[in-house]
Amino acid sequence: xxxxxxxxxxxxxxxxxxxxxxxxxxxxxxxxxxxxxxxxxxxxxxxxxxxxxxxxxxxxxxxxxxxxxxxxxxxxxxxxxxxxxxxxxxxxxxxxxxxxxxxxxxxxxxxxxxxxxxxxxxxxxxxxxxxxxxxxxxxxxxxxxxxxxxxxxxxxxxxxxxxxxxxxxxxxxxxxxxxxxxxxxxxxxxxxxxxxxxxxxxxxxxxxxxxxxxxxxxxxxxxxxxxx
Amino acid sequence: xxxxxxxxxxxxxxxxxxxxxxxxxxxxxxxxxxxxxxxxxxxxxxxxxxxxxxxxxxxxxxxxxxxxxxxxxxxxxxxxxxxxxxxxxxxxxxxxxxxxxxxxxxxxxxxxxxxxxxxxxxxxxxxxxxxxxxxxxxxxxxxxxxxxxxxxxxxxxxxxxxxxxxxxxxxxxxxxxxxxxxxxxxxxxxxxxxxxxxxxxxxxxxxxxxxxxxxxxxxxxxxxxxxxxxxxxxxxxxxxxxxxxxxxxxxxxxxxxxxxxxxxxxxxxxxxxxxxxxxxxxxxxxxxxxxxxxxxxxxxxxxxxxxxxxxxxxxxxxxxxxxxxxxxxxxxxxxxxxxxxxxxxxxxxxxxxxxxxxxxxxxxxxxxxx
Lengths: 228, 370
Prior knowledge:
Chain A has seven helices and ten strands.
């Protein structure tokens, strides 16, 4: 198992009586590859689950394991190092750095500017069809182009896990389909975890996690079910 | 350039960095200019007092009592023109101005034939006129002094000319001199011989004597003898010079505090605008320590640039002021103050750290709140 969450609880404002529980007793095991969809209405805790898995939020109780690593025993710097080396992030809004060119944005995770990494970035930009925008700034791109660049940035460090928080929410239907195709391609080598409330983009998901009020109400594996 | 290189941020965000840059430039300008005035004042005291006393000690009795014979015998060991009979009975030239204040310059009343030796010992050049002649009421003054007071060779100074002179009588400026030290020379021995004056007042070269010999000589004198030495002037000017130094530190500290508060607020606003950027970088895997260092380096680069610009601006401004206004008036504002540069350097260092504190202590801890 690649990922394991054991009895994970996440409560905001723990010092207040009215502390809100974003995750309640979450237990989860995920494989090392494939597409995982986290579904649920707004405020159900799906983003909290994603960020907890990514080590960006610390559970109030419970444990998160990535391989043999227990997040609760890792230092902040170790978690940061893990994110940088093994994880990729795509956010709902592209969140590109506005004063950097597309190419520079792509190079951010590695913080290198060698010929080799530039070539790698250009190959990825080309694969996503935005290679001509390499020297443009984010404000000169369309929403779809920006999200593609954000995906390039997420792929630059050859991540083993890609986390997407509503990565297609800001895109039109066609662009959303293209982005999902790209991410699906990547599931051959990595685990792609997507948070969405749009079930239609998860047609080819290997695992679907339904969450409501911080509780995992159902985990399904559509591919296997269809095979049965 | 690496994407997270601080210079890349500054290159692409010049306008955002401009207010910090300008504030630092102005702050450094004020502190450094003030320090140059301070250095000029110290230089003025040096050339009018300390540098003179680094070569000669002056000893004279207040009344008609004579200097101890043992003391005078010790002076026989000083070679050549190292011992000069002097009367310190003429003072009261108008002030010589420089930097933040002004001072009087010493007037040595020596025999005509000793005046040349005195000038030569300091490498002073007679640039106009001639040396003073005995009992002709003539005075030789520094060129800078003449320029400051709009005087030239042939002009008269003294209490009979103007009330502003404490110098009793009327003296004709016989010549102008230029050198590394400032004093004036006159030759008014009256009817007395050199030997008669020598037993009551003498200036002697101290560079021929060891430190112990100098101390022994001074210590051998009775209390009613006035001694003008480097140390005696250090005591006289210590309070003034220390106060000036203290004022520089206070000014620097005040500007640092003001800049820290002002730029702290400015950085806070800039930081809020960059929250998404920092949040992304944090999510990607850059620790808060690394991001803090990035922010500090950016801040430091801007502050150091402002520092260099401030220093450069001062140098150009002072150079122009010297050329256009001060030099023609016989004044000068010093161009370099290493202490001032160092004091001003504390500004970018402190401000770059402390003006970031509001950012680092507040919003930075919530970077993961999406």
